[in-house]
Amino acid sequence: MNKKIISIIxxxxxxxxxxxxxxxxxxxxxxxxxSINCAKESxxxxxxxVSSDSNEINKICKTNNVSxxxxxxxxxxxxxxxxxxxxxxxxKLFIKSKFxxxxxxxxxxxxxxxxxxxxxxxxxxxNKADSLFSSxxxxxxxxxxxxxxxxxxxxxxxRQFEQEKYNQFNENxxxxxxxxxxxxxxxxxxxxxxxxxEIPYLYSFQIDEKIDxxxxxxxxxxxxx
Length: 225
What we know:
Blueprint: E1 5-10, E2 25-26, E3 29-30, H1 31-41, E4 45-52, H2 55-63, E5 67-70, H3 82-96, E6 101-105, H4 116-126, E7 131-138, E8 143-145, E9 149-151, E10 168-179, H5 180-186, E11 194-198, H6 210-222
Parallel strand pairs: 1-4, 1-6, 4-5, 7-11
Antiparallel strand pairs: 2-3, 6-10, 7-10, 8-9
């Protein structure tokens, strides 16, 4: 692999719905550590950076020999978009040392297939992509409601058989891969020639509510890697 690839993990201290969410234990490990371990598993990722305002997460980074980037108070609020923080991190790192690709891991998705990042990186390069998101095949029927209910992705008057439905993919948020230099131009994790890397449904669950912690702990007991 002739490209320099880094991984960035964003793990702020506060969360509205789950207190200190990124330190919650899932399968007996702090949530953020699952993403660190996944990045460390990769043969292609050279450096791992964790951006956080948490002293506890700083200690985890030191213990696991990954770089900690102190997130400013300005970028630690509830309404700060992840792409804003990514831009701040990448812009600062780029001044010191150039790199080609960024693998962005979200701690809220702790369950990932074994070696998935290296497989996705190879897929990204083979397809000459600019940006990639992890996906899950999705065939559910979706409705929206404003003044009245209406279907978004199917005709309820002419229901299709399962095998007749066209493929739809859920952007599950587990990981993203993108060209570092172009990200600084677009300031968005998805741009240019976009593609996706499909992972099984089992690995698509995220932690957003307290009940999700119990669900993920259960899924770790039945996962097949």
